Amino acid sequence: MSIATVSRVLHGSPAVSDTARDKVLSAVDRLDYVPSGAARSLAVRQFEAHGLVLPELRGPYYSELLLGFEARAAELEQSVVVVLADGNRDLDHALRRLATRVDGIAMLGSIAAQECAARTMRGPKPVVVVGGDPALGVETICAENVSSAQALTEHLFAHGRTDLLFVGDPDGAPDVRLRLEGFRAAHRARGRPAADPVRIQFRESDGVAFVDRLLARRHTADGLVCANDELAVSVMARLAERGVDVPGDLAVVGWDDVMTARYVSPGLTTVRQPVHRLGALAAEALHAQVTGARQRTRCRVLPTDIVIRGSCGCTAPPLPRK
Amino acid sequence: MSIATVSRVLHGSPAVSDTARDKVLSAVDRLDYVPSGAARSLAVRQFEAHGLVLPELRGPYYSELLLGFEARAAELEQSVVVVLADGNRDLDHALRRLATRVDGIAMLGSIAAQECAARTMRGPKPVVVVGGDPALGVETICAENVSSAQALTEHLFAHGRTDLLFVGDPDGAPDVRLRLEGFRAAHRARGRPAADPVRIQFRESDGVAFVDRLLARRHTADGLVCANDELAVSVMARLAERGVDVPGDLAVVGWDDVMTARYVSPGLTTVRQPVHRLGALAAEALHAQVTGARQRTRCRVLPTDIVIRGSCGCTAPPLPRK
DNA sequence: ACCCGACGTGTAAGCGCTTTCTGACACCAT
DNA sequence: ATGGTGTCAGAAAGCGCTTACACGTCGGGT
Description:
alpha/beta
């Protein structure tokens, strides 16, 4: 047996006799032979791997994204190597390392917005960004934000709310900026001025602190459009503790449809995004760029669903579930 | 400039003059040069990458594990390639592929228990399993299960409960089996017989269906020890819908301390595991095996915390948080 | 003046695969 | 018999790095 034959067998080349194939296969099995992916990558000049860069992994959004990405990548026979920017780690170093071992890189919008990501996007490897600013010059895939935010805001207006506050930091992520844009558009459509956004982070403690400031009359509002559910849920819990009725005194809505949104009372009205598909499309777009099969579409926007529960003021069955 | 010099510069070898270093660095920058990780891997005979195999990614457990694993791996300058067994994908194929591109593989206990994982563990690459059966013959890292399950069960006894049911499938994951073991140990200690476990999956719909069966008098109980929080939370929600008071009529406890556990009412008494550390230790153990630095410790068990909220019958402040 | 070591740089031999090309062999048609 | 044709196996040339080693070129001791 020559090494060439072994290689042919392992890749199912038809030009091998059955006897040779059997001999190779049995030897492989007996010796627990594991080929070297590095040598193969070097020879075929493809890593057969995609990189995925996420800011973190708490909450369902990023998990679901990774899930979708990995699933589609696996179908395309691509490995996925993930890097998490979580904490204060050296993103620049991590990105540089990543680029040496993958054919292409998908990253979140909030990562792409960072300084050191620029060099990656300028580099030779294909890049697609998920939920990012379409103006970035690279292929972008994102969920619809503006018009669902507008619809959600308008929904609160329709409930008779007049004093709406947007809670979340538009500079933290492009998605949030677009949601704020929709929030403002709804105000414009009604000819009302939109209050400045309350710029706080996504952590639960930030939501609690915000409620305390609100009740200290530092803000006034009868409706809260929160940039995500984690915030919305922590806000609702704190409001309940402080004796404020939701939605009676204050309506609350969010984004993401986390599990908790179904279990709090009242249920949280929120926006569900096709995150799994977002991930899958990212893997696919990346693969298309790598194989050169398709010229990159600049930007793809996926529709979202508003899921109405009780927190916006709608009457809903107690503890409604999906 | 020769390629050897370039290589030396890029790896910070001290035997390079400053002028040469500068020249190389500026050229690298100008050309957006990205070295080939494959070629390096081939030359140094190390992939500098770890594999992590997870069954899925919903809920905080796996996410947190990946978070910890990736963080520690990054510190050790290792990339991480993840494969998710989610759905009906060809695990065998995926594992085989994975083995060709990493130095070692970490996998969940539920993966390790599968048929096709055996060949990976028999193969030449180091393997560590997280939350798996220590009897597997490979290095194992897991959170304490038996004694916390026993303590939790005993806690319900102390609340005067007598009719306890363990809800979850002990054959689904080694962790669940061990929790059941602790549940039984607590019964033995009190000289009571333990009821057979209610073998259902982790999905929320399974919890709902179980409650309906329970209320149809197919089971009787005044306390439920659920194998994880997702189950516990869905059970509690369904009980509330059906007008059963928790903890008055029925106490409920779970595992994992998911976000929802803090926000439901009453708060869910549960067990918090050091999942992040579990992941970090897995990465570390793997790296130790790969570098041959340390002979593998057979099994490492991390302590867990019981977090008491209201669902067990303890009086707790309304909506307690961490 | 010389030699010797230290220091930088270049040369070249792999690392373990893939793949093209060449060759061996068998088989059919002439 | 001979030549042509088709099938399968092997030889060998890389793929782009790392690194042992060889080779200057200095500076300082003698």
